[in-house]
Every structure is written in C-alpha cells, then in structure tokens.
C-alpha cells in the first residue's frame, strides 16, 4: 500500500530501548514518540511473533508515546525460568511493563493475539485500563481456534487442501512432538490466508525464529491458551466501563468477523469498524487507513 499515509520511518537514534525485568523474563521494550505524550502500549500478534518494523507508523508521534515490547521471552526478550509460557504469565508481564513506565492506567493497542492479550489484561487487572484499541478481534476460544482451520470460503478451502492440514493440525502437532514439518505446513497455510491477495506457497524451510514463533502458537492452541473454556467471552461483561474500539477486516480468514459482530451487539462498550475488502493484516490498505484515522484524527 502507499507509504504516504504512514508516519515516517524512524532512525535507530529516535527509539529508546530498554530491558525490563519481571519475575520470569527480561523484556525488550521500545519507546517511540514524544515524551509526555499519551502513552499507548502496543501488543503484537502471535503468540511469539515479536515486533515488526512498522507497528508505530499508525500514530501521530507528536501526540503519542508508543511503547512496544516482545512478549513471553520471544525474539529479543528472554525467559529466566524453565517453564512453559502461559497466558497468565504474559498478562503479569504486561503489568510489569505498566509499572515500569509509571502508569496507573494504560491504553492498549492489541493486534490479533495482541487483542486477546489486551482483553485478558483488562479482565485480570480491573481498573488498570483506560481504553482498548483492538485489531483482528480474537477471543481465543476453542471455536475461534477451530474456525481458523475451517473452509469458510473457496480460497481458504484451497489453502487447506494444498497444505494438507485441517482442524486436526493441533492433534498432529501434539502427536508428532512439535515436528518441523507440521510447523512448516502451518506457517505456509497461515501466510496464505493472512491477506486477501495471498496464495498458498509451500515454505522450503523455516528460520529458527519462524519455527519458534509457530511452535509457540501451536503449543498455545494445543493447550487452549492455558485458559478455562470461553474464558474471555464469559467475562466481557466485567469490562462494561472500558471503551473498546475494534477494527476488523470484513473478509478476515484468521479471526472471524462474525464473532466481533456478535460481541458488539451484546456489549454496548464495544464499537466495531469493518474495513471493506480486507483480510487479517493490519497493513492492508483499508484497515491501515482506518487505524490511521483513529490515531491521527481522534478516532
């Protein structure tokens, strides 16, 4: 899409890098934008994806101070315990980030899995969130995970057929002891459904970082995100005083647009905006424009 709508790229000297210690991790953080500006903590997707180089470019950096960090020991962060990363650990880690930046209440911008983490944090730490901005609204329930691997349209059906995976991908991953082959087929499938113009292309190999990313995702899925069944959906009513603005591609094949429609009808504090002819990626043109309008035009 056109670069002209984005905030300009920053030089490394414009980014304040820090490492934050938590009881179980050392977390890589970045702070970008004006000191004293409205702080927004960005929550990346995954789990396990890490920060990309463009996440801050939706923001007016003369107004916002954008804080990004890498969750759960992924990428430039590291775990300090020999234990599986769980949703609860990631929520507690986020609260350590909040305290490090001296905020009593925080504004969160979560994308895909990051939207799930934002909702979990608001539920588990009541009174700590001013508002939530979400992209790729995802509740992380068993039905949401199954929907990712269901043939909801012709393109998705073709990708499922070519990759040779389906709802049983989670069982395959568990049974084959986290095999590279299963992770590679999952990665190829996910890439093909991430945007509307994507097509299935088998990956020849995965880098160690890519493998760790998809291994983390599949491990979370295999363990139902280490949460009780429908944990978030059953607790959304507790967030009735937290404004939630969600932007979602109307053709998203990863996170069901129907789930957001249902939740927005049920909960008055959720405002939904649908970007037309858009898939899952926040960098598709209509989705990017919608996010730019929110963070540059006052919502």
The end-to-end distance, rounded to whole angstroms, is 21 Å
Count of β-strands: 9
Low-confidence stretches: none
Query: What is the C-alpha radius of gyration, as a whole number of Å?
Result: 18 Å
CATH topology of the largest domain: Rossmann fold
In terms of quaternary structure, the protein is: single chain
In short, what is this structure?
Helix content is 34%, strand content 18%. With 299 residues, the protein is an alpha/beta fold.
Describe the overall structure.
With 299 residues, the chain is α/β, with parallel strands linked by helices. It has two domains: 3-140 and 227-297, Alpha/Beta hydrolase fold, catalytic domain (Rossmann fold, 3-Layer(aba) Sandwich), CATH 3.40.50; 143-225, no CATH class. The chain is built from nine helices and nine strands. It has helices at 87-100, 113-124, 142-148, 154-163, 169-175, 180-193, 208-222, 257-266, 285-297, and strands at 16-21, 25-33, 38-43, 64-69, 78-79, 106-111, 129-135, 244-249, 270-275. Helix 1 packs across helix 2 (113-124). It is globular and about 50 Å long.
List keywords for this structure.
Rossmann fold; 9 helices; 2 domains; alpha/beta; 299 residues; nine-stranded mixed sheet
Task: Draw up the topology in text.
Layout: E1 16-21, E2 25-33, E3 38-43, E4 64-69, E5 78-79, H1 87-100, E6 106-111, H2 113-124, E7 129-135, H3 142-148, H4 154-163, H5 169-175, H6 180-193, H7 208-222, E8 244-249, H8 257-266, E9 270-275, H9 285-297
Parallel strand pairs: 3-4, 3-6, 6-7, 7-8, 8-9
Antiparallel strand pairs: 1-2, 2-4, 2-5
Helix pairs in contact: 1-2, 4-6, 5-7, 6-7
